């Protein structure tokens, strides 16, 4: 029995399915992932949704709900049977592979073997070189969708490679093009560190629209990317087009809201977000976006009051900050691994003088492992800002600004850290506080900017002053 079990395991690991794709999902992310899968099943108009039922089955299994997982696999099978034979083969192989693994995990070796036999028979028909897996672009695409839905930079990178591989075989395939465009867009949010340029991202999105002219979801993503690169007017045309289409409306609403929030049309953004929330109340993304809208309203009031709000303005600021805090807390209750939301929440606590809660919230992200470089920079920048402005701790502010700069990734945040640190160092020099260290920091900043002669001047000043102070003591 033991040797039979080992043989079964050896066969199972050869399958290409959700159990063997090493999908990187933290246990704390499972409820949010399940919510997003259910939202996609209900609200995203796609011809490719057998795969999402397969992923739901895998998530149900991870949660210990194996009977529900079997139900999701049956849903996937029913959808596959509605497809053309040529399209359904790879999806069937994935589903049968998931069945085999699930029965194995449930202690049903005979059922597991029966599904392995089905996979083997199909692989023979397809002329595969392996008994239990087939190399084909549709299979790469299925893996790409699963990785894409699980989120996170590493999953996005692997998804991008899957769709790229599929497109190399069939460059005019609309499904492959859509997956490639979405993975490119997601990776682009990690900025230059991923080597994906904004122009390259635009090209991928435009190509996907060419092959999928009715896909409102892709049009909304293209609109946001055009806004990123300063082509907001063209982006708004795509947003309005997408809003005028009944396809995937709940998803279009959330991206349109993000577009209008960034444009400064906050009332319109909030109206769109509240419409989307009626359909998907358990979306962490939507609650976070609502919180960001309230925060933007706070900034608008403060700017109009020359950053000194009084009377009714001050009351409105306080009310809006509390509304923003409430929404972001909802987002974090749904998705406890939402790092950016922790940073926003900490900043809002600091805004109303709740410094202990701000500190606790910052510590939650400062202590997290496996945070990508760009996000680490953002955390150190905001925490340094908090230490400088609210805690009046120059030591801690400088420490975290420098930690952020030592992360070797080109991003907008590194530029913001440079500016903040330069202002702080110059202020210290003017106020005759920590002058040697501040001069050294200014030298370091000029060195990072590539201004070698200015850097040397500051370093020399720091050395001379240090020598004078040592001689005096």
Task: Please give a structural write-up.
It is a single chain. This protein is mainly alpha-helical and 473 residues long. The protein has a domain at 1-135: Serine Threonine Protein Phosphatase 5, Tetratricopeptide repeat (Alpha Horseshoe), CATH 1.25.40. 76% of the residues lie in helices and 0% in strands. The chain is built from 23 helices and no strands. It has helices at residues 2-12, 30-43, 50-62, 66-81, 85-105, 109-125, 137-150, 153-169, 174-188, 198-211, 216-228, 232-243, 249-263, 266-279, 284-304, 311-334, 339-351, 355-366, 373-389, 394-406, 412-430, 435-448, 452-472. Helix 5 packs antiparallel against helix 6. The radius of gyration is 26 Å and the shape is globular. The model has no long low-confidence stretch (mean pLDDT 91). It comes from Neovison vison (American mink). It holds the Pfam family TPR_7. One of its GO terms (molecular function) is RNA binding. Residues 59-93 form a coiled coil. This is Interferon-induced protein with tetratricopeptide repeats 1B.
Task: Outline the fold blueprint.
Elements lengths: L1 H11 L17 H14 L6 H13 L3 H16 L3 H21 L3 H17 L11 H14 L2 H17 L4 H15 L9 H14 L4 H13 L3 H12 L5 H15 L2 H14 L4 H21 L6 H24 L4 H13 L3 H12 L6 H17 L4 H13 L5 H19 L4 H14 L3 H21 L1
Helix pairs in contact: 1-6, 2-3, 3-4, 3-5, 4-5, 5-6, 7-8, 7-9, 8-9, 9-10, 10-11, 11-12, 11-13, 12-13, 13-14, 13-15, 14-15, 15-16, 16-17, 17-18, 17-19, 19-20, 19-21, 20-21, 21-22, 22-23
Q: Short description, anyone?
A:
With about 475 residues, the chain is mainly alpha-helical. It has helices at about 1-10, 30-45, 50-60, 65-80, 85-105, 110-125, 135-150, 155-170, 175-190, 200-210, 215-230, 230-245, 250-265, 265-280, 285-305, 310-335, 340-350, 355-365, 375-390, 395-405, 410-430, 435-450, 450-470.
């Amino acid at each position: 029995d033991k040797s039979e079990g080992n043989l079964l395991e050896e066969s199972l690991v050869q399958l290409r399915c959700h159990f063997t794709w090493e999908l990187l999902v933290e246990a704390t992310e499972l409820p949010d992932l399940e919510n997003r899968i259910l939202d996609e099943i209900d609200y995203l108009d796609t011809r490719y949704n057998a795969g999402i039922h397969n992923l739901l089955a895998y998530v149900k299994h991870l949660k210990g709900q194996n009977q529900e997982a079997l139900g999701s696999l049956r849903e996937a099978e029913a959808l596959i049977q509605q497809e053309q034979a040529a399209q359904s083969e790879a999806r069937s192989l994935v589903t049968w592979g998931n069945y085999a693994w699930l029965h194995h995990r449930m202690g049903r070796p005979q059922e597991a073997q029966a599904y392995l036999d089905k996979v083997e028979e199909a692989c023979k028909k397809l002329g595969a070189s392996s008994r239990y897996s087939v190399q084909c672009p549709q299979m790469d695409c299925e893996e790409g969708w699963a990785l894409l839905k699980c989120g996170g930079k590493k999953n996005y990178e692997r998804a991008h490679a899957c769709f790229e591989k599929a497109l190399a075989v069939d460059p005019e395939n609309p499904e492959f093009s859509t997956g490639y465009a979405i993975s490119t867009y997601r990776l682009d949010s990690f900025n230059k560190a991923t080597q994906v340029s904004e122009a390259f991202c635009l090209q991928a999105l435009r190509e996907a629209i060419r092959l999928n002219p009715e896909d409102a979801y892709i049009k909304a993503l293209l609109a946001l990317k055009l806004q990123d690169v300063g082509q907001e007017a063209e982006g708004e045309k795509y947003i309005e087009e997408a809003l005028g289409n009944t396809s995937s409306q709940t998803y279009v609403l959330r991206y349109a809201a993000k577009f209008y929030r960034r444009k400064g049309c906050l009332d319109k953004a909030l109206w769109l977000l509240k419409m989307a929330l009626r359909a998907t109340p358990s979306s962490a993304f939507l609650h976070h976006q609502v919180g960001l809208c309230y925060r933007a309203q706070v900034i608008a009031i403060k700017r109009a009051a020359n950053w000194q709000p009084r009377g009714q303005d001050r009351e409105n600021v306080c009310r809006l900050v509390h509304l923003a805090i409430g929404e972001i807390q909802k987002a974090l209750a749904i998705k406890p691994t939402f790092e950016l939301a922790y940073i926003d929440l900490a900043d809002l606590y600091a805004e109303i003088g709740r410094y202990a809660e701000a500190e606790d919230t910052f510590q939650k992200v400062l202590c997290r492992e496996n945070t990508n470089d760009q996000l680490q920079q953002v955390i150190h920048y905001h925490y340094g800002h908090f230490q400088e402005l609210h805690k009046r701790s120059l030591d801690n502010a400088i420490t975290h600004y420098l930690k952020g700069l030592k992360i070797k990734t080109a991003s907008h945040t590194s530029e913001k850290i440079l500016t903040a640190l330069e202002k702080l160092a110059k202020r210290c020099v003017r106020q005759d506080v920590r002058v040697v260290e501040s001069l050294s920091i200014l030298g370091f900043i000029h060195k990072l900017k590539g201004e070698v002669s200015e850097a040397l001047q500051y370093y020399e000043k720091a050395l001379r002053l240090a020598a004078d102070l040592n001689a005096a003591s």
